[in-house]
Amino acid sequence: MKFILNKIFGSQNARELARVNPTVEKVNSFEEAISKLSDAELSDKTRRFREHVRMEREKHAGEIKALVEKIDEASFAQEKDKLKLKLKNFKNRIFEEILPEAFAVVRESSRRVLGMRHFDVQLVGGIAIHEGKIAEMATGEGKTLVATLPAYLNALTGEGVHIVTVNDYLARRDRNWMGPLFEFLGLSVGVIQHDMSPEDRKKAYACDIVYGTNNEFGFDYLRDNMVIDKNDIVQR
To answer: pTM here?
Structure first.
């Protein structure tokens, strides 16, 4: 039965690809116009995107607050998870209008700064991550580059974005490798390492985008919840 249904309707993965392909085509439709912009005009797109996100968040502030309050009041984990997913989907709609152009801006900036242009399949990965889904990619398929797309888009809120990897070496490497791209677009980039002082951690967490490991992010969160003086908190 499953085989027959897949033949008729396609696998879930095939349906997801079919759903996001129109968005990929929209990203591609911006490429010619964006490639003609000067470096200054390209990096100035960040200011315009930020203003759009700010206005959208203000417009929907009441609805977002109501959902957050419902999450806090929810008694059961399953209910909380459903509400959190609803909140995530609602927040994603704030980016809906600018996502194709923003991804096109990152791709063109990457081509100029890093000499690397995102392939369409990497755009698909970026959309999946932005939507809170999992994009499975083999070694060498460009996960580090893919992460720049949703990281840039979500950093437009000014609330900070964490890019989590598995060890200090990769966190440092990826920050140094992708950092110039984000900086070209007017974003600040930091990295968390195991031997950093609290002062340096606080500076890194204040950046628009910060690279680090799950251990460092997790233990900093735990330590922040045990401090006596709130000035000793390192995360935002």
So the answer is: 0.89
